[in-house]
């Protein structure tokens, strides 16, 4: 009996030790030209972006002019009213990405995800019908927990920064990158990132923080704005490092993350430089300048967004990236009725009624009043959309998944 008890204690101690070891496996790090995993070996990022979840985009709903989160919310509120719209978004945020989505991504071989978010989720500003400053952390905590359970890593991406860092619909701003010319907006950006970093400083499932998605669109005068990007990055990193020395910082170049000339100073050892690339030829030539940057400065690079193309293009470009030791997150994971992503939402019946209303010009209240709209039918469409966006209701694009080298 004594021997049995000793054996059980040994087994329990071993099991407990293994659990502690698994929980303290360490952080992913940047080291010279590599991203290094907790096991000390190079870690090649392979995954997708959870676009259209915390930052809805019009084109993913088949809208054109109604393209930012604010415009989409306004359209829905015009049709069904502000309170029902508020409830719509609450349910949408719960349904669009669930644990089932994360389990499936793990099943097919993804090792990480990038999560775009809107800064307003961390403030009391109105966003998607609500103004609760606790929403951001609650939503991120939830998806990070699911990813932790599945062994996936998470990059947090501020897709929409205070004042706007891009100046287009994707940052939910006012059509200009006001962030770089306004100290109050910059301070709020710093404060939010410091709050996030403080909250996740010990969370190893979080790979790192992508500070500003696609800053300074090409529409604007680069000479007057580009030089303001690196000083803001430095300011944010400096404050993050006061509370979190563990996580990678991801820095994107100007002009849709394509201009790395803005990086003329290297001030932190745990940084990965991230570029985005759409629509070019899926060849080495299209990314050679980023590889040259890596070789010249002895720093790691990775592509945070690419895709939106044919299966053949996806296959070819993914192979180019991997053969040049560049990790990837293809964009996006899920959207409406499309083969250019992993999961495709089946449009509800009469979804065209919502599209037609969204695309009808509304330059005045008179315009809004005179639009012929079947509110009852569109409300039904929205209710059906909340069900259609769930993982189990989506179609899976096998050709696209195979092109990514994934399966399951």
Task: Walk me through the structure.
The protein is of the alpha/beta class. It has a single domain (37-403), classed as Glycosidases (TIM Barrel), CATH 3.20.20. The protein contains 15 helices and 13 strands. The termini are far apart.
What does the radius of gyration come to? 22 Å
- Can you summarize the main beta sheet? 8 strands, parallel, barrel
Strand order of the largest sheet: 3-4-5-6-7-8-9-10
CATH topology: TIM Barrel
Which helices and strands occur, and which strands form pairs?
Elements: H1 2-23, E1 29-31, E2 34-36, E3 46-49, H2 69-80, H3 82-95, H4 99-108, E4 112-118, H5 135-150, E5 153-160, H6 183-200, E6 206-210, H7 222-225, H8 229-243, E7 248-252, H9 254-257, E8 271-277, H10 288-297, E9 301-306, H11 311-323, E10 327-330, E11 334-336, E12 343-345, H12 351-359, H13 365-370, H14 375-388, E13 395-396, H15 398-403
Parallel strand pairs: 3-4, 3-10, 4-5, 5-6, 6-7, 7-8, 8-9, 9-10, 11-12
Antiparallel strand pairs: 1-2, 12-13
Helix pairs in contact: 2-3, 3-14, 4-5, 6-8
Short description:
This protein has 408 residues and is an alpha/beta fold.
Observed structural traits:
three-stranded mixed β-sheet; alpha/beta; 408 residues; single chain; globular
């Amino acid at each position: 009996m004594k021997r049995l008890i000793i054996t059980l204690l040994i087994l329990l101690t071993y099991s407990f030790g293994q659990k502690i070891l698994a929980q303290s496996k360490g952080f992913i790090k940047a080291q010279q030209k590599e991203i290094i995993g907790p096991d000390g070996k190079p870690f090649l990022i392979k995954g997708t972006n959870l676009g259209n979840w915390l930052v809805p985009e019009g084109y993913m709903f088949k809208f054109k002019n109604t393209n930012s989160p604010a415009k989409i919310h306004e359209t829905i509120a015009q049709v069904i009213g502000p309170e029902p719209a508020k409830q719509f978004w609450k349910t949408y945020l719960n349904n669009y990405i669930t644990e089932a989505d994360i389990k499936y991504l793990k099943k097919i071989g993804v090792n990480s995800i990038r999560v775009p978010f809107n800064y307003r989720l961390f403030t009391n500003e109105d966003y998607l019908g609500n103004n609760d400053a606790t929403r951001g952390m609650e939503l991120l905590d939830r998806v990070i927990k699911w990813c932790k359970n599945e062994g996936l890593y998470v990059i947090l991406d501020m897709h929409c920064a205070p004042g706007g860092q891009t100046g287009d619909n994707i940052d939910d701003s006012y059509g200009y990158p006001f962030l770089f010319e306004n100290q109050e907006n910059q301070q709020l950006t710093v404060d939010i990132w410091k709050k996030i970093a403080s909250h996740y400083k010990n969370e190893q499932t979080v790979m790192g923080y992508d500070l500003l998605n696609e800053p300074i669109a090409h529409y604007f005068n680069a000479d007057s704005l580009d030089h303001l990007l690196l000083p803001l990055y430095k300011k944010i990193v400096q404050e993050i490092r006061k509370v979190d020395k563990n996580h990678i910082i991801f820095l994107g170049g100007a002009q849709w993350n394509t201009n790395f000339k803005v990086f003329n100073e290297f001030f932190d050892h745990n940084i990965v430089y991230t570029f985005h690339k759409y629509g070019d030829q899926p060849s080495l030539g299209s990314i050679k300048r980023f590889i040259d940057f890596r070789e010249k400065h002895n720093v790691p690079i990775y592509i945070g967004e690419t895709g939106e193309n044919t299966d053949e293009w996806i296959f070819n470009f993914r192979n180019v990236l991997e053969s040049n030791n560049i990790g990837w997150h293809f964009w996006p994971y899920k959207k409406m009725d499309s083969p250019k992503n992993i999961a495709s939402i089946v449009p509800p019946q009469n979804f065209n009624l919502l599209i037609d209303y969204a695309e009808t010009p509304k330059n005045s209240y008179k315009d809004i009043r005179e639009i012929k709209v079947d509110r009852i039918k569109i409300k039904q469409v929205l209710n059906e959309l909340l069900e259609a966006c769930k993982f189990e209701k989506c179609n899976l694009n096998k050709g696209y998944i195979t092109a990514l080298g994934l399966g399951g």
